[in-house]
Write a structure and sequence with these properties.
The chain has 20 helices and 15 strands. By secondary structure, the chain is an alpha/beta fold. It folds into three domains: about 20-265 and about 445-460, Glycogen Phosphorylase B (Rossmann fold, 3-Layer(aba) Sandwich); about 270-440, Glycogen Phosphorylase B (Rossmann fold); about 480-513. The protein has a seven-stranded parallel sheet with strand order 3-2-1-5-6-7-8, with helices on both faces. Strands 12-11-9-13-14-15 form a six-stranded parallel sheet, sandwiched between helices. A two-stranded parallel ribbon has the order 4-10. Helix 2 (about 30-45) links the parallel strand 1 and strand 2 (about 50-55). Helix 2 (about 30-45) crosses helix 19 (about 445-460), helix 5 (about 95-120) packs parallel to helix 6 and helix 5 (about 95-120) runs parallel beside helix 7 (about 175-210). The longest helix has about 40 residues, at about 470-510. The termini are far apart. About 40% of the residues are buried.
Length: about 525
């Protein structure tokens, strides 16, 4: 009995000594707070105390539902960006400035710094990748910090210059390849000038005002931010399917600061479905299609009304549409009804995708939806919005995990449904999904992310000097100079041709006279 009591006391003391006080920082968007909460849950399950610092009223609306074991939850206007409305991928790209620079860097730094001035007794901090400012604030207070990210990660190594991910995806286009390459270059320029350069200037201002180590300034790197900052100077947790989120899986073989943990859902990810959805799926006698376009990207309500009307009128499929809060009430108020379409909101998505009757997932290719589609091995139709979604959609199609939608209409969805449900195509996609899932689930998931945080706090993992990158700023200016020279040559050729024609016509008239 004495030995047992001694053992219990030793275990208790060991856990107490090794229990960490951790701060988790996140935005409140579903695509961000969902993976953040998964890491928080894993840390709590390992005996650590986790406090949460989030935007707006997120403690009540999201955190309490996704992570109930927090020690404390604090809300502040750390990152408040409303839904972004864009009619094109290019238009949405311009709005990245507000997300990454103005809110994610400037506002996040000052709000997190103010918070840490009165709450700084943390052993380690884990933050959402978009909040580079929060990461820098943790560095200011000398607290070990790790950022995490679900989505495409593309840096150009000097040793292996892979293809750059495009921020625009145009499937089945008639445009020639050189035009598509010009568009890809243009999107890179937009990101560089409207996001990366502004982040670089803002971080340099932090260096001038606060005692931060000027890592970015010393390296002279102004391209690819905020991702290149994490690649160069931090320990960075990369979640999701690496065969989709990397342009080349060879990247994983290089020693760098990116830790790939894949995705393994825990029990909280499998939330119960509503009785309404359960009944709809149960009585479905046609192929079931699940449609969700995410919580951030919005479209014109008239386009969505037309799509809902077409869904209600058709008889080929049973459709469950999970509409964002931004337009769910408007669509519901229209009273458009059909026995084979169900309009809902806030769906337990992974639980629904795991249903055997769900044949196809129509998605915006958001990062969380991608990994859930792969985990459930559900063939996908992709219609991306902007940001990381075009790159995700392209990679899904290239890896034979999905088919692209040229437009969001019932005619296009029906055309692609016939292809994706054909026996041969369906079997190929499901085989690719199985292989991708096996890679993704072999990397450890949330628990591995929690283990990495523990190792960072103990000093067992430190940032290393990673393989050098291609200087995209120099590459961009070189390409821009070449394009400008080409344009001037073309303009000169046109002017010369017009002048030649005019002179020839004038000589012809003179000769006739």
């Amino acid at each position: 009995m004495k030995c047992l009591l001694a053992l219990l006391l030793f275990n208790h003391l060991f856990i107490e000594v090794n229990s960490l006080n951790i701060l988790g920082i996140s935005t409140c968007y579903t695509g961000h707070i969902t993976p953040s909460s998964g890491i928080f849950r894993a840390l709590s399950a390992r005996g650590h105390s986790v406090e949460v610092f989030v935007a707006a009223d997120c403690c009540e609306s999201k955190v309490s539902k996704l992570f109930s074991n927090f020690s404390s939850c604090f809300s502040a206007p750390i990152y408040e960006v409303q839904a972004l409305k864009a009619d094109s991928q290019i238009e949405g790209l311009f709005q990245m400035q507000d997300i990454f620079y103005e809110k994610g860097t400037r506002v996040a730094f000052h709000k997190t710094r103010e918070f840490l001035e009165s709450h700084h007794n943390y052993d380690v901090i884990v933050t959402d990748y978009v909040l580079l400012g929060s990461y820098l604030a943790a560095e200011l207070f000398k607290i070990p910090v790790v950022a995490h990210y679900v989505g495409p990660f593309s840096v150009l190594l000097e040793a292996e210059p892979d293809e750059i991910m495009s921020l625009v995806y145009m499937p089945e286009t008639m445009l020639p390849n050189f035009v598509l390459e010009l568009i890809k270059f243009a999107t890179g320029c937009i990101w560089h000038y409207f996001v990366s350069e502004k982040i670089y200037a803002e971080v340099n201002q932090f260096y001038d005002e606060f005692p931060l180590e000027p890592k970015l300034r010393d390296a002279g790197i102004s391209f690819g931010l905020p991702f290149v900052y994490y690649y160069m100077f931090s320990n960075f947790i990369h979640m999701g399917p690496p065969d989709v989120f990397l342009t080349n899986v060879h990247f994983m073989q290089y020693k760098n600061n990116i830790h790939h943990v894949g995705y393994i859902p825990d029990q909280t990810c499998f939330k119960p479905l509503s009785s309404e959805i359960e009944a709809f799926v149960e009585k479905a006698d046609k192929p079931v299609v699940y449609l969700s376009l995410g919580t951030l990207f919005t479209m014109e309500i008239t386009k969505l009304e037309k799509l809902l009307s077409d869904f209600a009128a058709q008889k080929k499929y049973d459709i469950i549409w999970s509409a964002s809060d931004f337009y769910y009430n408007e669509l519901k108020a229209k009273g458009i009804d059909g026995g084979n379409v169900l309009l809902v909101t806030n769906v337990a998505q992974l639980s629904l995708l795991m249903k055997e009757k769900v044949n196809v997932f129509v998605t915006h290719a958001g990062a969380n939806s991608v990994q859930e589609g792969i985990y459930s091995q559900t063939p996908m139709l992709v219609f991306p919005g902007f940001g990381d979604q075009p790159a995700n959609a392209y990679q899904l199609v290239q890896n034979n995990l999905a088919l692209p939608l040229v437009e969001l209409s019932f005619a296009e969805i029906s055309r692609k449904m016939e292809l994706i449900l054909s026996p041969e195509q369906n079997a190929q996609i499901r085989d690719s999904l199985k292989k991708s899932k096996n890679i993704m689930t072999s990397l450890g998931g949330f628990d591995k992310a929690a283990e990495i945080l523990e190792q960072v706090e103990r000093g067992e993992i430190k940032a290393v000097d990673p393989p050098p990158l291609v200087n995209l700023t120099r590459l961009m200016y070189t390409a821009l100079f070449g394009l400008t020279a080409f344009f001037l040559i073309c303009v000169s050729a046109v002017i010369a041709f017009i002048w030649f024609c005019c002179c020839k016509n004038r000589r012809a008239k003179t000769k006739t006279s």
